[in-house]
Design brief:
This protein is about 50% helix and about 5% strand. By secondary structure, it is mostly helical. A two-stranded antiparallel ribbon has the order 1-2. Helix 3 (about 105-125) packs across helix 4.
Length: about 300
């Protein structure tokens, strides 16, 4: 909607040329050459300028005239002209991190649809095996009483794999076990489209291993970044205590975790470098992966990941 409004108002505010008449497009040729017509095509009369829609207003074509900031000069700041009044008057809902025109309502409608579908799958899945699986999975996630009662017991196999780590080989096994269970570790791994051949799906290994969204939170000492690091450290400590660690030990372990993630951040590409499609495309085979990182037990990793 914003783009449509921009185009319409730009034409009105900054001028537009006279509409030209249109000629019908000929059918596409078959083969290398189009067959010669049996007779010349009859000329099409010039229809002249298109007539404007009678009594048209912004509202009548689905646009909101109240969004416009008529105090702004559209040739100086068109975005402010087209959307400024809406920005000034719109509040972000308390239960959402952001808002935008139309799409929030669409997202809410989609969420309601998905919620109703999953609730039906949970309570009355019928005989469809897919709906039965969806209902069982969704129901297990929503059973908060059972989750609280189980505590960290379901995590014990993963914690046991972590506790066995003493060298590169056992670390390789733990990483593979965690990732097979859907837990991210030192990097991101999964199927991706081959950027050089869109018909192929290949395995993609991407940077990861940090607990906050961007490397700069570790490396750039701005007040906002420090606040995020402190909050993240508190979350990590709380999780370690919940997993059975003593408070003092959890604080030291948190410091060790942040130190490790800071080192990972130092060798990670920043936002600008990650926008370079050539710099982030380094296609090698499995043998090449093992050669690039020989201390990691890749054979165990591939086997465990499946």
């Amino acid at each position: 909607m914003r783009s449509a409004l921009s185009l319409i108002l730009l034409a009105a505010a900054c001028g537009s040329g006279k509409p030209t008449s249109t000629q019908p497009m000929p059918p596409p040729p078959s083969g290398d050459r189009a067959p010669a017509p049996d007779k010349p095509a009859e000329p099409v009369a010039d229809q002249g300028p298109q007539k404007p829609i009678k009594n048209a207003t912004l509202a009548s074509i689905g646009l909101d005239p109240e969004a416009i900031d008529r105090k702004a000069d559209p040739c100086d700041d068109f975005y402010q002209f087209a959307c400024g009044n809406w920005i000034a008057k719109t509040e972000i809902p308390a239960d959402k991190p952001a808002t935008m025109r139309s799409f929030v309502a669409i997202q809410d409608r989609n969420d309601d649809y998905l919620h109703d579908m999953l609730e039906k799958a949970r309570t009355s899945p019928g005989t469809d095996p897919v709906m039965q699986k969806l209902g069982a999975f969704y129901g297990s996630c929503m059973d908060e009483a059972a989750i609280a009662k189980a505590g960290i017991k379901p995590l014990q196999p993963l914690l046991a794999a972590i506790n066995k780590v003493k060298d590169a080989k056992s670390l390789s096994s733990a990483v593979a076990t965690l990732e097979a269970a859907g837990v991210g570790t030192l990097w991101q791994f999964g199927p991706i489209e081959d950027s050089a051949d869109a018909t192929r799906t290949i395995a993609g290994i991407d940077q990861g291993g940090i607990g906050v969204p961007d490397r700069d939170y570790y490396l750039v000492d701005e007040p906002q970044n420090k606040a995020v690091r402190d909050a993240y450290a508190q979350v990590v400590t709380t999780m370690l205590v919940a997993a059975g660690h003593k408070a003092d030990a959890a604080k030291q372990e948190t410091a060790d975790i942040l130190a490790l993630e800071t080192e990972i951040a130092k060798v990670s590409k920043d936002k600008v470098a990650r926008r370079d499609p050539k710099g982030t495309y380094n296609k090698i085979d499995r043998a090449g992966v093992a050669k690039a990182m020989p201390h990691f037990d890749w054979e165990t990793y591939w086997k465990t990941r499946g």
